[in-house]
Design brief:
9% strand, flat, 5 strands
């Protein structure tokens, strides 16, 4: 975006160029250390949302199995900041475990050439009050 002259709106330049995938086959088909490590894993083929839902379900079932005297329950959806009711899928946490809110998070490791890394997003911090 170029700066406009005072009183003249800035000029916006847009251009779209499409390149066929065949020009990048060597890049697209290259097996990386990360893809080799995950290629046989079902979790690697799922979207982040689906992977998170599956792992959340598995963890909750594991808690019920390991701690049979504990109680888990679905979240209370509550309301959004605009006052509208939330759906269960948009609750502030995944489930209650003996009255404590539980949010199950997942990530996928990636190899950047020298170290393994992972990124967790959307972490909710409990606020006092």
């Amino acid at each position: 975006q170029h700066r406009g002259i005072i009183g003249v709106p800035p000029l916006r330049i847009r251009a779209f160029i499409t390149f066929p995938a065949s020009q990048f086959e060597d890049i697209l088909n290259k097996e990386t250390v990360t893809s080799a490590a995950y290629k046989t894993s079902l979790l690697a083929t799922l979207s982040p949302k689906a992977r998170g839902e599956l792992l959340s379900l598995l963890v909750r079932q594991l808690i019920v199995t390991l701690y049979p005297c504990s109680k888990t329950s679905d979240p209370i959806p509550g309301t959004c900041s605009n006052g509208y009711r939330r759906g269960v899928a948009r609750a502030e946490y995944d489930w209650l475990w003996d009255g404590q809110r539980v949010e199950c998070k997942s990530s996928q490791f990636t190899w950047n050439g020298s170290t393994w890394r992972f990124n967790l997003q959307g972490i909710k911090v409990q606020h006092e009050g």
